[in-house]
Write a sequence for this structure.
């Protein structure tokens, strides 16, 4: 059976960073991603990133993907990249099964870093299966990867960072965004994102939810209504929008199937988006040799995912014996970066969630 | 409230705006960043030490307006597009506002566009005096607008359409433009009737149905009056133009 020292599942910001960190420490790494190219969600991010220089602040997301991929390739033979390869299973003996180009493959790594990211949450409302109703990820894939306009008139459901960013990208693509609604009484995303869309005249309606989607063969109209402080709809507050796209952006939940399979201890932490694995400071789960990094361990910004990836890669390599004098210094720097990124008021929920899963 | 609407309030703005004196001295950065988020590229971009080092990355930027030269380095680096450069030293009546812009096509230098406020409402006509195209991977372009000085702290975006164009037709029947109306108001004509008599606005086939309201709005705006207190035009028969012969011929009604 094919072997490797560290297998990294998922080639997004966390996985790429983990692979770089593992390989730079001296380990042989195998990076596995189900897409044709690496970068994960970074590929679709056309906005400049927040954070500090260490997390590529002020650089656009898709450029960061290229920077990370170039950095990884510097390590030559120590790096193996499997793209178009979906991990199907993760077994007790740490064997990974993979489908790549219609072939079934097995890989036995010594350490595994699961960096599978997250999946989108959806909403239950009548006719939510009509064509034209998309998740925000699909809209970004269409626009930013394939250059296809998803429609002409959009109602955006969700005023978190993704809803705000995708609205801005839609407007940049020449699509009308009729309104951004959010059931919460306040805007969840960064206010600078909200303000830059608001000053183009796009209304942001908080305490509104979608009631009904209308249409026969495709969505033609959306009805929204206001909700009160108990999240109950208020009758006679309905508003209609003539649209051909409803974009749902109501949050993410960790894509942790593989962690469940191998028997990691999981805890339901709503602040982090769903079920997350219990882990230690070095991002190792209760199963020795299984590390995690990025959104699979709780929904955060990509900047934190990249730092977590570096940390997981560093610690996985150390557990294989790749240990240098500056290990402690590097580890501390990464942990300090995470503390700093999570320290402000927007990190409140993340901090409270993480306290429950880090042992 | 900002957190509900995305629109910074007057109180929010009051907190971050430099003194009138400083604004009059030359270009200065206005940082409209009202929330503690983990982000500091404005500090790293500033070569003059005007944006203070962050004690922690979530801190809101603190700027020393005396050290700020208005160079604009921070403007293109801000991921939130929340920094603007204003220059009220341009003239007594006009100011320059630099706005980060990430849309195509870019406006051409010299054209007139519409200045939008933080709510996206059209508030004034603005001239594009400079377009600095975004370079390399940064790509954020900077548009410098010339706006009436009283709007320097209001205009924060632009619509490439020129809503307030002087060539906009106010009276279609007689072909009277917004520019002509504005000039007349400036000369001291301040009621619909006065402007009608001097310019023929509202005296064509429609007899003012299309233009009357627009005219009233424009007078109200230019003179600062409230429309409900302003005199309407005088209404006399016939309410539509007719052949004089119809009147002369009359009807056999004794």
């Amino acid at each position: 059976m094919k072997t490797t020292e560290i297998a990294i599942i998922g080639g997004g910001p966390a996985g790429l960073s983990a692979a770089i960190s593992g390989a730079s420490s001296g380990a042989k790494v195998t990076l596995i991603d189900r897409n044709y190219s690496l970068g994960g969600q970074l590929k679709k991010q056309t906005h400049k990133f927040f954070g500090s220089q260490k997390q590529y602040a002020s650089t656009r997301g898709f450029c960061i993907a290229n920077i990370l991929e170039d950095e990884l390739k510097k390590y030559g033979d120590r790096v193996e990249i499997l793209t178009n390869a979906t991990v199907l299973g993760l077994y007790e003996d740490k064997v990974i099964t993979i489908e790549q180009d219609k072939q079934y493959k097995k890989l036995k790594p010594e350490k595994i870093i699961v960096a599978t990211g997250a999946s989108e949450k959806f909403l239950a409302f009548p006719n939510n299966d009509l064509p034209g109703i998309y998740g925000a990820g699909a809209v970004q894939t269409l626009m930013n990867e394939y250059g296809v306009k998803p429609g002409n008139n959009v109602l955006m459901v969700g005023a978190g960072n993704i809803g705000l960013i995708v609205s801005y990208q839609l407007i940049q693509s020449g699509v009308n965004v009729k309104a951004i609604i959010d059931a919460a009484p306040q805007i969840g995303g960064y206010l600078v994102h909200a303000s830059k869309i608001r000053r183009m005249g796009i209304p942001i309606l908080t305490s509104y939810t979608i009631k009904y989607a209308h249409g026969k063969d495709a969505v033609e109209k959306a009805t929204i209504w206001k909700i009160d402080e108990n999240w109950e709809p208020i009758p006679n507050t309905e508003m209609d929008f003539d649209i051909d796209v409803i974009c749902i952006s109501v949050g993410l939940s960790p894509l942790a199937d593989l962690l469940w399979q191998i028997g990691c201890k999981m805890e339901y932490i709503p602040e982090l988006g769903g079920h997350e694995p219990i882990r230690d400071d070095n991002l190792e789960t209760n199963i020795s040799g299984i590390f995690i990094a990025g959104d699979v361990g709780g929904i955060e910004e990509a900047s934190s995912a990249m730092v977590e990836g570096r940390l997981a890669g560093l610690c996985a390599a150390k557990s294989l014996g790749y240990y240098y004098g500056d290990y402690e210094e590097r580890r501390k720097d990464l942990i300090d970066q995470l503390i700093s990124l999570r320290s402000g008021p927007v990190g409140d929920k993340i901090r409270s969630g993480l306290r429950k899963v880090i042992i | 409230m900002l957190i509900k609407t995305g629109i910074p309030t007057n109180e929010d703005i009051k907190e971050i705006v430099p003194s009138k004196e400083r604004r009059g001295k030359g270009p200065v950065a206005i940082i409209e960043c009202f929330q503690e988020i983990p982000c500091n590229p404005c500090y790293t971009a500033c070569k003059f030490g005007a944006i203070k080092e962050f004690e922690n990355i979530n801190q809101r930027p603190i700027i020393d307006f005396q050290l700020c030269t208005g160079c604009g380095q921070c403007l293109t680096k801000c991921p939130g597009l929340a920094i603007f450069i204003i220059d009220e030293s341009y003239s007594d009546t006009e100011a320059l506002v630099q706005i980060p812009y990430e849309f195509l096509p870019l406006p051409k230098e010299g054209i007139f566009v519409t200045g939008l406020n933080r709510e996206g409402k059209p508030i004034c006509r603005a001239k594009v005096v400079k377009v600095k195209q975004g370079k390399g991977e940064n790509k954020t372009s900077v548009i410098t607008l010339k706006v009436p000085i009283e709007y320097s702290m209001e205009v924060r975006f632009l619509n490439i359409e020129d809503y307030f164009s002087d060539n906009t037709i106010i009276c279609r029947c007689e072909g009277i433009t917004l520019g002509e109306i504005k000039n007349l108001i400036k000369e001291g004509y301040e009621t619909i009737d006065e402007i009608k008599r001097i310019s023929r606005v509202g005296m064509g086939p429609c007899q003012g149905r299309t233009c009357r309201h627009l005219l009233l709005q424009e007078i109200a705006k230019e003179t600062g009056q409230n429309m409900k207190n302003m005199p309407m035009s005088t209404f006399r028969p016939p309410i539509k133009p007719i052949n004089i012969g119809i009147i002369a011929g009359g009807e056999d009604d004794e």
In short: The interface with chain A takes residues 2-8, 32-41, 44-45, 56-58, 77-82, 102-103, 116-121, 137-140, 156-157 of chain B (CB under 8 Å). Chain B has a mean pLDDT of 92. Residues 2-159 of chain B form one domain. The beta strands of chain B are 28-31, 83-87, 94-101, 112-116, 122-132, 141-148, 157-159, 169-171, 176-177.
